[in-house]
Amino acid sequence: MGLRLGLRFSLVMVILALTLSGEGVEAQSRAGCKNVHYDLAFILDTSSSVGKENFEKIRQWVANLVESFDVGEERTRVAVVRYSDRPTLEFNLARHKSLEEVKRAAANIRYIGGNTMTGDAISYTTQNVFVERHGARPRAKGIQRVAILVTDGRSQDYVLEPSKEAAAAGIRVFAVGIGEALKVELEEIAAEPKNAHVFHVTDFNAIDKLRGRLRRRLCEMRRIICQRSAVFPVFLLTLCTYCLSNTTHCCTPSLDVLCPNMKVQPDRFKPGSTSYALDAVPD
């Protein structure tokens, strides 16, 4: 028991030190994604409720967000799926090999109109985007697979099972809801922990406000920890070993880089938790 309590307390201290020291938050955010590489797919709702004018804002948002990444064949690869009645692969992970190519392609994503079959789009992405024949790298290489789904309304099919299949395939899904998108549905779509992977804004004019927050989720904490982990090599090695063997006691998604196989349970440090009498640790 003493070892567990000591490790938990040390974990909180290390995370606080890593977060507060060094460069400012914005500097970390701007640079963060340049040193981490993903297989990244955007899943974009092009149903009738979106409208052509609003979809232009989504296209611009995608083009702006990809500027955060070091796009390249051996770096971050980007794909886009658009969907309404059925999903369509706009371009796969192997198609574009530079940031400028991706931005030009994003500006030409077609708007269709129709119904909102979000579950079908998630299944399609799992089966047709994150596969080696379409440019995804083998999971053994350790390249994290990330999908960012953007929708403005309720799905007309079920999303829970397709989302579970995506998670089982190692895909980390961020759910971005606009306007009347349902929170409960966004949570069914998103990866764990939900509060780190669900975003919502009231209308399309506000979507760009999410860009910085989403970028930080993808990049900032990962960069801070990776950059400074050498300061605590023995402790972190011990911590990873502890996390892997005691998964119910790991408390923060920020350590998924150091302990990629651990099960994250952020509620462990919330007030009232039976694990330990500490205040909630900010995500």
Folded structure, characterized:
It is a single chain. The protein is α/β, with parallel strands linked by helices and 283 residues long. The protein folds into two domains: 2-28 and 223-269, no CATH class; 36-222, von Willebrand factor, type A domain (Rossmann fold), CATH 3.40.50.410. Helices cover 41% and strands 14% of the residues. The protein contains ten helices and six strands, in the order H-H-E-H-E-E-H-H-E-H-E-H-H-E-H-H. The chain has helices at residues 2-20, 25-32, 52-66, 99-107, 118-128, 160-168, 183-189, 194-197, 209-228, 233-245, and strands at residues 38-45, 77-83, 87-91, 144-151, 171-178, 198-201. The protein has a six-stranded mixed beta sheet with strand order 3-2-1-4-5-6, sandwiched between helices. Strand 4 (144-151), helix 6 (160-168) and strand 5 (171-178) form a beta-alpha-beta unit. The protein is globular, with a radius of gyration of 19 Å. The model is unreliable at 18-30 and 221-283 (pLDDT under 50).
Summed up, what is this model?
With 283 residues, this protein is an alpha/beta fold. The chain has helices at 2-20, 25-32, 52-66, 99-107, 118-128, 160-168, 183-189, 194-197, 209-228, 233-245, and strands spanning 38-45, 77-83, 87-91, 144-151, 171-178, 198-201.
